[in-house]
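Ticket #4471: structure export looks truncated?
Reporter: QA, pipeline team
Priority: medium

Steps to reproduce: submit the single chain below to the structure queue and open the exported record.
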Amino acid sequence: MTFNLSDSFHPYVSHFKLKDVYSAVFGTQNTKIPFLIWLLENPESPLSLPGNICLRYHDYLHILLGRNLSFQDEAFVIGFTMGNDLNIKKIHLLIYKFFAKFVYPYPYRFSDLDLLFFDLGFHYGKKVKVKYINQMNFELYENESIAYVRNLIGINLEELKLIQKFELCLLTDFSIS
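Actual output as written to the record:
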């Protein structure tokens, strides 16, 4: 089974188990995370920001949110986890955005456009019913369908589709200017 992560919006994919989709998309990846990113985003770091999440669960969110692996999609997922953590403060956002735009090593730096996607994810993360998703034990739900886990968390496909339509407008505006 191989597919594009945005395919997870399609009804035929929603019945697949979370772990099966993860294995198909991310299974053989051995990703080395740069130290600065680990420092701010990994739960094992003493300096991690609210919304920190282990890489595997972060990848699960890519699947559940129907996000691919572009910088904009990465920004959306990170924004989602930070916005979903009720401990987030404005200072955390300022620190994260500063590091993501100016300090993170290339190619991990975010552009202004990427940060707009981050903001969209942040606001959507605040909206979903389950909070502190970054602390959720996804191992309990690996054998559940994508549709089941989305419903449990409160991820609404129609809302995500509207967000993606808005993102297309942003991309069009950025490419024109």
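Status: closed, not a bug. The export was complete when the record was re-opened. Leaving a note from the reviewer for reference: The mean pLDDT is 91.
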